[in-house]
Amino acid sequence: MEILKTLSMNETNHSIVYEFVFLGISSSWAMQFFLLVFSFVFYVAIVLGNFFIVLTVISETRLHSPMYFLLANLSFIDLCISSVAVPKMIYDLFYEHKAISFLGCHIQIFFIHTFGGVEMVLLISMAVERYVAICKPLHYLTIMNPRMCILLLAAAWIIGLIHSLTQLAFVVNLPFCGPNEIDSFYCDLPRLIRLACADTYKLEFMVTANSGFISIGTLFLLIISYIYILVTVQKHSSSGLSKALSTLSAHITVVVLFFGPCIFVYVWPFPTIPLDKFLFILDFVITPVLNPSIYTFRNKEMKVAMRRLISQLGRFRKIL
User: Fold this and answer.
1) Is the dihedral of CA 198, 202, 203, 208 positive or negative?
2) Model confidence pTM above 0.70
3) Can you list the residues of the chain whose pLDDT is less than 50?
4) 157: CB partners within 8 A, 6+ apart
5) Which residues contact 215 (CB under 8 A, 6 or more apart)?
6) Which residues, 6+ apart, have CB-to-CB distance to 226 below 8 Å?
7) Is residue 182 classed as helix, strand or coil in its secondary structure?
8) Contacts with 3 (C-beta within 8 Å, 6 or more apart), sequence order
């Protein structure tokens, strides 16, 4: 009888947490108002900018090439990553009680890691595409054929889903009996694990190994590939080095901004420092705006295509 009573109490304790409460980024009203305006303006820019890039690439036949195919998919993923966390953050800034359901938290983790994994592979694919374009221009169309582009995109989604499901498997069966406060503005996996009513030391190490080390490894792989491209270009033509450096500097900027917060959160040994929350604003708010700016507004062909699309949309409005 005593054993049944204990089991009943344990089941009750493990079912107490039906929602998680976000502590947000700051308790200051002025800071929250600033973040509300800042996030809203940038999110509108993210939606309009990235959607317009995807629409331009789809509608303009001259942009049906591997580089723009990967760019359009990167813009779509940036839009998805931002939409997973930013609208919820903007909504929560209106209210004192910032909560998310137990299921909603796990869904948010799933999509954040899925889209994050897809973007990692897309960035590697873009580095491969730049290597072929710069170092093997005569074989570009043979190597970067439509089938290869589809395979790269499929690999990105498969790896992203595997990565996300692996991360979710770490937490889906964890017991949560309180407290239920997450010191963040979204369901942060390391902080969520620390709320579990269990010994999570080994689990935290596995999460770090799965996300932190993968992020560091991918970052170094990308940096090394960019260095190799620059060295190859310098050997063949010193005059082309400045052009290659100008092109790759945009890629390097995006890569550092994307991987920086990930590495900090999963590897930094002092998680009590709230700097990680501000760093992740880079991933969810700043980087998705910079990507279209860096990859698009510096590209003459893309700018011409956008102007053509805007004029076509203008003529369509007049007809209506």
Assistant:
1) positive
2) yes
3) 1-14
4) 118
5) 120, 259, 262, 263, 266
6) 127, 248, 251, 252
7) strand
8) none
